[in-house]
């Protein structure tokens, strides 16, 4: 038998993401037979009270997706249990151990990372870190390389590396996995996937939300540590890595870590040229007036809510190909995309003054709001015009046009996939220790350069695409950021 323990089981992540994910898996008949789901948190409540809270959270979410049904819920309810614990105390955790006995236990730490080290130590003492146990750690693990290593050393004292699952929920997104299929399941892209054909790569994660009441956490981390150190660098790795020999966790992660090691360090002198940090001031977001970050927080802060960086990967494949990354809160759209911008044709045989000028091919891997991979190619504009006219045509590479592929599935919560994989012991879509370590090493240099410069973040008005300096970062190289309708 198996058990899933959700530490922080009554918290925001559990209620908004993890428990709805488990409900959807239950609905689709994908949860392991006999699996128990145990919420564990400080709050002194009975299992019935906990189940009532889970019911409300899960039902609200499932109804939005039109997937609520009482049978699925009653199956899930039968698995649920709750125990009030102090997770940092081995004595307190013994009660939990008594509940799971010798079951294979997967424990998900959906609590503040500052508690991770103490919790894993207590888990080991309470017998919750046995050979068949697994632990899932939500990001961010640490706030810099030093704190990451401190936490991770405590984890390594309690668990072997193959028992540790460091989550980056971006890796659970369908299109991210589709990118692997596209690159390595076809022969036609890989020969082009290099500096001979690709001009540059852009990765954008735009969010319309502000920081809101998350600021106690956010103010300590900022966009660099909250988004770039993990989600954005993971996407960069999947675009840039060499073909792994198979899909084994280590084969894939060996390739990703090589990319991280090849990232050109950003020195304090370089930082001003290749990085931009911004913070939103009052503006209009989705048609409504919104406050600036400092006003929400109630005092002045130098934390960035926007970051744009030019990364260079110093290896044969990518020499000379800039990777531009940007992410921010209070941007005009919730949009996540990777743009592969190919080089223009070396010589155009078509009239330059014509409306049909040759545009360079562009592949857009869109994760949000839609999930799709599209390729823009040039095509002849139909008709009898004497002069050949061209037009760009956007082709979807994900769902096809012949209607023979599977229909686009329901948009799943990324955690559905990751919870299943962690329980099955497959760590391909999780972050290995050396990956996180390299990512922190690179990000630390940026953070240190910013601290040394003493400069405040550039202001940008809420509802815009960040400070002008972010446009300049790209424009300086003769390029520009992709816009949704380009
Ligand atoms: C989280 C960050 O990891 O990702 C949040 O902590 C951010 O600040 C969120 O809002 C974005 O995730 P998604 O899947 O909505 O793009």
TrEMBL record:
The keyword Secreted does not apply. The active site is at residue 231. Substrate binds at residues 169, 173, 207, 226, 329, 334. It catalyses: D-glucose 6-phosphate + NADP(+) = 6-phospho-D-glucono-1,5-lactone + NADPH + H(+). It comes from the Bacteria. Keywords: Carbohydrate metabolism, Glucose metabolism, NADP, Oxidoreductase. Pathway: Carbohydrate degradation; pentose phosphate pathway; D-ribulose 5-phosphate from D-glucose 6-phosphate (oxidative stage): step 1/3. Residues 181-482 form the Glucose-6-phosphate dehydrogenase C-terminal domain. It is an enzyme of class 1 (oxidoreductase). InterPro entries: G6P_DH (IPR001282), G6P_DH_AS (IPR019796), G6P_DH_C (IPR022675), G6P_DH_NAD-bd (IPR022674), NAD(P)-bd_dom_sf (IPR036291). Pfam families: G6PD_C, G6PD_N. Residues 5-178 form the Glucose-6-phosphate dehydrogenase NAD-binding domain. NADP(+) binds at residues 42, 139. The keyword GTP-binding does not apply. Its EC number is 1.1.1.49. Belongs to the glucose-6-phosphate dehydrogenase family. Catalyzes the oxidation of glucose 6-phosphate to 6-phosphogluconolactone. PANTHER family: GLUCOSE-6-PHOSPHATE 1-DEHYDROGENASE, GLUCOSE-6-PHOSPHATE 1-DEHYDROGENASE G6PD. NCBIfam families: zwf. This is Glucose-6-phosphate 1-dehydrogenase. It comes from Brevundimonas albigilva. The lineage of its organism: Bacteria, Pseudomonadati, Pseudomonadota, Alphaproteobacteria, Caulobacterales. The gene is zwf.
